Amino acid sequence: MRIVLLGPPGAGKGSLASLLQKQLGVRHVSTGDIFRQEIARHSALGRRVHRYVTSGRLVPDRLVVAVMAARLNPAQIDRGIVLDGFPRTAGQAAGLDRVLKRRRRPLDGAVYLSVPMTVLVRRLTGRRVCPRCGANYHVRTMKPQRPGRCDRCAARLIIRNDDEPRTIRKRLRIDQAASRPLLAYYRRRGVLYRIKGAGPLDAVFERVHRVCRRHGWLG
Ligand code: AP5
């Protein structure tokens, strides 16, 4: 299956995409993870996107689409992907469609996770991440087994630098403005599915899984 996960910062796109990869074997590709890895490596791409990512602004569409067109290899597209954090704008959505069209593998669905604002803020302020393997935790709802340590690789967990309260508010504002035309784009294409993203992660997974089964995306 080929789906994109949409939703504001903190909607749970990354957590859900990881679970979809683990349970269904579809490849999870996250633009946020790609950019953070490149920043950590001090690569040319990392230097170009650094100021956008740390301040919560969107990386320009042309650059994002070029990066993703290069990263999404044909075999991955054929086997199935779940995209997290991309596309973010209607321009990026059109860019993704062009990439998939070249491969004659259209998008199955754009799944929008709808979550109340108070829950988003609570999730983002309590998020902890592993700087080594990228695993995601929450101080109350998704605790690691050993406090402050990653379950997968035992590295010390950190707070993402864009999870500072002022930057969170800015990201939520920017997302609101960009997502209206993005959702309109997918609604027009007839592939937009709204899912309740509040509640435990396994319940959200079950809702999305049901949509995948109902539409025959799992092959
Ligand atoms: P990105 O990393 O994509 O950040 P985001 O979209 O702001 O989304 P988040 O990662 O904050 O949230 P999420 O929805 O993945 O939630 P998560 O699963 O972590 O992008 C970062 C930056 O990169 C952008 O600001 C921009 O600068 C740049 N960028 C990236 N893509 C771009 C693009 N396409 N175009 C332009 N610029 C781009 O969950 C959040 C917390 O809640 C976690 O602690 C988790 O444990 C917890 N949680 C999740 N689900 C549940 C649940 N069901 N119940 C309880 N807790 C939960």
TL;DR?
With 219 residues, this protein is an alpha/beta fold.
Element layout with pairings:
Layout (H helix, E strand, L loop, with lengths): L1 E5 L6 H12 L2 E4 H11 L2 H12 L5 H11 L2 H6 L1 E4 L5 H13 L6 E6 L2 H9 L1 E3 L6 E3 L26 H25 L2 E5 L4 H14 L5
Bound molecules: BIS(adenosine)-5'-pentaphosphate (AP5).
What's the CATH class of the domain at 2-115 and 192-214, please? Alpha Beta
Strand order of the largest sheet: 2-3-1-4-7
What is the global morphology?
Answer: globular
DSSP helical segment count: 9
Cα-based radius of gyration, to the nearest Å: 17 Å
Low-confidence segments, ≥5 residues, pLDDT <50? none
What is the makeup of the main sheet? 5 strands, parallel
Description:
This protein is an alpha/beta fold. It has a domain at 2-115 and 192-214: P-loop containing nucleotide triphosphate hydrolases (Rossmann fold). The protein has 9 helices and 7 strands. The protein has a 5-stranded parallel β-sheet. A two-stranded antiparallel sheet has the order 5-6. It is globular and about 45 Å long. The chain binds BIS(adenosine)-5'-pentaphosphate. BIS(adenosine)-5'-pentaphosphate (AP5) is lined by residues 7, 9-15, 31-32, 35, 52-53, 56-59, 64, 85-88, 92, 123, 126-127, 136-138, 141-142, 162, 171, 200-201, 204.
Give me some keywords for this one.
single chain, 219 residues, Rossmann fold, five-stranded parallel sheet, 9 helices, globular, binds BIS(adenosine)-5'-pentaphosphate
